[in-house]
Specification:
Length: 259
């Protein structure tokens, strides 16, 4: 896609599913003031799988929460598609989150008294919307939960619980799925299953996925990795390999004294 720019020659306009511009987020004040994000500008390409990496406390969760409309910010702007989040009322923001965004939390956040299927359809039940059964079936097949839908979370392994959380995020056909360390609590095999599901949802359905991870192998499932340190984007890598990411992380230890 190209667009004519009033200030110069025709330039390719990248399609972003979501984009932060000069985004800052300050927590607290005075002695407890923490700049969690310091003028971050980053775009998450449409139908792309982006990983966010960086040391603990570098602002990864804050960035995702702000871009997903789960948390307010101090300055700058966030766009989801062509909608500016700052221009929305609380009600409009809730609706946008519900209709266009799926979120996978690190701690699964499943309700223990509900079955796997009930957990997956809960957000739609709350919104009073009937699921698209065909889509729901395909999501459940993709995450490999077909035989376990009547199980409660305690009857499922960690990997399966996290796949329920992924299915719940995908069930309402969101444009973008945000996942905060979705494999952080999983062994490598269960982690690979969850990562495969996320990657499939990009490849097969053209969804956009943004994932925080500490793990270079998890990051290698992504199309692109952006690295945060001290609330700023400090580097990025396209078509990451686990070895390449590991090498870059080692160089950060020297450049930013991160560990
Ligand atoms: P990460 O996900 O990379 O570990 P976070 O985004 O959680 O980092 O946190 C970034 C910085 O903001 C950290 O210094 C953290 O302590 C601080 N922070 C995060 N949430 C809050 C909060 N609710 N109140 C005060 N400080 C916070
Ligand atoms: Mg975090």
């Amino acid at each position: 896609m190209t667009t004519a720019s009033p200030t110069g020659p025709r330039t390719a306009a990248p399609a972003y599913a979501a984009r932060a511009t000069d985004l800052s987020k300050v927590h607290g004040q005075g002695d407890t003031r923490v700049v969690a994000l310091d003028r971050v500008s980053v775009g998450f390409g449409q139908s792309r799988f982006t990983a966010i990496m960086g040391p603990s406390g570098s602002g990864k969760s804050t960035l995702m929460h702000c871009v997903a409309g789960l948390d307010g910010f101090s300055s700058g702007s966030v766009r989801v598609g062509d909608v500016e989040l700052g221009s929305l009322t609380d009600r409009q923001l809730t609706r946008l989150r519900r209709d266009r965004i799926g979120f996978v939390f690190q701690a699964f956040n499943l309700l223990p008294t509900l079955t796997a299927l009930e957990n997956i359809t809960l957000p739609m039940d709350i919104a009073g919307r009937a699921p698209d059964e065909e889509w729901l079936d395909s999501v459940i097949r993709t995450v490999g939960l077909s035989g376990r839908l009547t199980h409660r979370p305690a009857q499922l392994s960690g990997g399966r619980q996290q796949r329920v959380a992924v299915a719940r995020a995908l069930a309402c056909k969101p444009d973008i799925v945000f996942a905060d360390e979705p494999t952080g609590n999983l062994d490598s095999r269960a982690g690979a299953e969850v990562l495969g599901c996320l990657r499939d949802s990009v490849r097969a359905s053209g969804r956009t996925v943004v994932m925080v991870t500490h793990d270079p192998v998890a990051a290698s499932y992504a199309d692109r990795v952006v690295f945060l340190a001290d609330g700023r984007i400090v580097d990025e890598m396209d078509e990451p390999t686990a070895d390449g990411v590991l090498e870059l992380m080692k160089s950060f230890d020297v450049r930013f004294r991160t560990s």
